[in-house]
Write a sequence for this structure.
């Protein structure tokens, strides 16, 4: 499947592949038809995390530091290192980064710097750093120096606003939670008019591939999430009334199912999702998922198999590829939901 | 909306009405993010609020600059949580002494519109989606009587404020049903540095104190008696 090389000029026109596992069938739609595929009493749960510009260039060196997970405080971060090359080269083709050592200072310019506090003994590209600023000063500096993580398939480097969903608030995500990108307020308004509820979680969507097989085996990293009390209540009401809960994106599935698995029920508050969801996993909270188009080799694809049998997914995705659907962050979309 | 524990963002918060508003919202228990271009002045205001026991964070930046706005909104939400109250107070007059329209350069009008109209539009666009999602939020546009009456030499500013008043009504018409209350408020003539620049000869004793006006605006946010889409006059308004 070809990648979408730029964001849509007309929002809501992404194609939407509707996969119905209850009837073992699929159909072609567009994203703005989504309200017609849901019914009164259904609930859609989005990830409202904004995207932080998580890519930092070390001044005067061919070294990129990519923030992948927040540590104990706002100043402490896990990061991966990337070597020579820019976003135009796929990460797996980027040169190996030079080795860094514990205690080393990394200068990002414009007053932002950090100390390396740990280097992973097996994978030296995975490090822990501590910024010398905190709070408002750190955030100002991060937004000044950082750039959003870019992708090799993009036709040009995109600005930070391209990587935000239309309802985003706290910048917890390190890459765009892209399943929500096709949701315009026109679509959300129509959904509301149909009696479809809209709720949210905040999930620190992290890096989905690093360009290193050994590092990729450690993915996904534990990701911080927060579930609002209103969301827990909306989900309970929906379930009680026989409605369906549709998770917008794998990050929402991960937050909801990790919380459910850890506590035996959904509860409001913060947590860290460590759960890996794949074939054989039975989702307890989400009945369906709105997701990007994912190829069979990715971890996202493994997660989709929790919602539909592999054979149906393969048939649907084959048809989508033939119909020239586009994949990746700004690509087309898929709804898997039993009707 | 009660301000206790809420997340608020005030633009143009380093002096005048913006400073008074930031102090007032913090005094009522809101966690306040202050934005303005002047770093030192802004830090001083935030430090004063903190010294008085309030929660305040200074984010230097220009809300009229497209490249900066996502960073300011993102940093604000990271510091105090999703924004519940957004106050568009920052504005510019354009070149002073104020000029007749026939003497106004197109570029000057453009700059005033960018700061007083497009800037607030951008910031609301970034922040109000989350308010609509959560079903709660208040957006305040600080207006001026120059938005209604056409005073000679106030052209660029007056046009920008009139357009902002309508922007406010337009937002209210579209996102009111999601529970977001958007209104405009005319603070009246106040004893501020901006007023002194526009009308240097004004009798300061006849001007309202920004502090008193800020209290009124905070009451409007809390009381809910100002409906979305309306335009209030701060100096004659009384809580219902």
């Amino acid at each position: 499947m070809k990648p979408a090389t730029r964001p849509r000029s007309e929002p809501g026109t992404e194609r939407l592949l509707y996969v119905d596992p209850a009837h073992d069938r699929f159909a072609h739609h567009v994203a703005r038809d989504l309200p017609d595929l849901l019914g009164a009493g259904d609930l859609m749960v989005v990830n409202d995390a904004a995207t932080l510009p998580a890519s930092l260039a070390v001044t005067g060196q061919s070294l990129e530091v990519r923030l992948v997970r927040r540590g104990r405080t706002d100043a402490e971060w896990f990061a991966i290192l990337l070597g020579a090359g820019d976003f135009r080269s796929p990460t797996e083709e980027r040169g190996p980064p030079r080795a860094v050592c514990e205690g080393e200072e990394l200068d990002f310019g414009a007053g932002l710097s950090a100390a390396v506090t740990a280097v992973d003994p097996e994978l030296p590209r995975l490090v822990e750093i501590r910024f010398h600023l905190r709070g408002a000063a750190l955030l100002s500096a991060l937004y000044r120096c950082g750039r959003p993580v870019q992708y090799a398939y993009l036709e040009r480097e995109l600005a930070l606003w391209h990587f935000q969903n239309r309802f985003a608030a706290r910048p917890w995500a390190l890459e765009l939670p892209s399943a929500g990108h096709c949701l315009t307020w026109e679509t959300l308004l129509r959904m509301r008019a149909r009696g479809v509820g809209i709720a949210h979680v905040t999930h620190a969507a992290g890096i989905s591939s690093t360009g290193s097989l050994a590092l990729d085996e450690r993915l996904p990293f534990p990701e911080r999430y927060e579930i609002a009390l209103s969301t827990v209540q909306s989900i309970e009401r929906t379930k009680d009334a026989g409605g369906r809960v549709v998770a917008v994106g794998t990050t929402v599935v991960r937050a909801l199912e990790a919380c459910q698995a850890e506590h035996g029920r959904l509860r409001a508050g913060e947590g860290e999702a460590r759960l890996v969801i794949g074939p054989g996993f039975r989702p307890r909270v989400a009945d369906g998922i709105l997701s990007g188009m994912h190829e069979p080799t990715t971890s996202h694809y493994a997660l989709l198999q929790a919602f539909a049998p592999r054979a149906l997914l393969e048939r649907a995705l084959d048809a989508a590829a033939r119909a020239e659907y586009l994949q990746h962050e700004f690509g087309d979309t898929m709804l898997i939901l039993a009707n | 909306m009660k301000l206790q524990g809420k997340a608020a963002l005030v633009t143009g918060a380093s002096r005048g009405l913006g400073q008074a508003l930031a102090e007032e919202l913090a005094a009522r228990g809101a966690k306040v993010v202050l934005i303005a271009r002047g770093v030192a002045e802004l830090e001083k205001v935030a430090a004063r609020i903190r010294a008085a026991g309030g929660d305040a964070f200074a984010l230097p930046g220009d809300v009229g600059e497209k490249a900066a706005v996502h960073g300011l909104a993102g940093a604000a939400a990271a510091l105090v949580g999703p924004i519940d109250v957004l106050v568009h107070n920052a504005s510019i007059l354009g070149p002073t002494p104020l000029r007749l329209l026939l003497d106004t350069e197109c570029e000057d009008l453009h700059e005033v519109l960018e700061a007083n109209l497009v800037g607030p539009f951008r910031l609301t666009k970034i922040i109000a989606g989350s308010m609509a999602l959560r079903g709660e939020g208040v957006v305040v546009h600080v207006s001026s009587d120059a938005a209604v009456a056409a005073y000679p030499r106030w052209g660029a500013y007056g046009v920008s404020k009139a357009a902002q008043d309508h922007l406010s009504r337009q937002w209210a018409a579209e996102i009111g049903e999601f529970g977001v209350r958007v209104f405009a408020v005319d603070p009246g003539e106040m004893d501020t540095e901006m007023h002194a620049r526009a009308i240097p000869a004004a009798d300061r004793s006849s001007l309202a104190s920004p502090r008193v006006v800020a209290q009124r605006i905070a009451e409007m946010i809390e009381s809910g008696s100002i409906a979305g889409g309306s335009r209030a006059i701060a100096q004659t308004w009384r809580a219902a």
